[in-house]
Amino acid sequence: MTTPRWLNEEEQQLWRKILAFVRKMERTLDETLLENHELTSSEYAVLVSLSEANGHEMRLRDICQDLDWDRSRTSHQITRMDKKGLVAKVKCAGDARGVIVEITPEGERRLKDAVPAHVETVRSLIFDPMQKGQMEVLDKYFTEVLSSQACIDKDAESKVE
Asked: The pTM is what?
């Protein structure tokens, strides 16, 4: 077993700020969606994926990949959304195990209503406080982190239908 590479004081402080930032961002986005549009951030994410898909429909396994969710989480989320009338599940022609998920007119309406407030919240929370040059630095950094070996999903097989 190798010795952990402990964080120094400066790294520890930054790490805790990152965690606090992520919590604040998620909480603020969740509150905006729930209070104003009765949508969870997970519902919003699914509706965005479907709205951007060809024909406003996707296979369940493609939603898993698009949102980087495991199959169980995606399946439960889609079932809840189906019961609320936001999406509809349809058997995949030619593949008895496959499921196609379609956005419903109600899902489209709710998404359309939620987008302006969501975008304004993202802008005020993330981009308005940003100073010149910070976006490029963050973009490069996040791109490097997301493409690094440390971020490889060890559970990729469970995401495929």
From this structure: 0.84
Per-chain mean pLDDT for the chain: 91
Q: What is the pLDDT of residues 45-99, one digit of tens each?
A: 999 999 999 999 999 999 999 999 999 999 999 999 999 999 999 988 777 778 8
Nearest CA-CA partner of 45 in 96, 98, 118: 118
Does residue 119 belong to any structural domain of this protein? yes
Q: What is the number of domains present in the chain? A: 1
Surface-to-core class of residue 54, CB atoms within 10 Å of its CB (0-12 exposed, 13-18 middle, 19+ buried): exposed
CATH of the domain at 102: 1.10.10.10
C-alpha 115 chain-centroid distance: 14
| Residue 106 Cα to chain centre, angstroms | 20
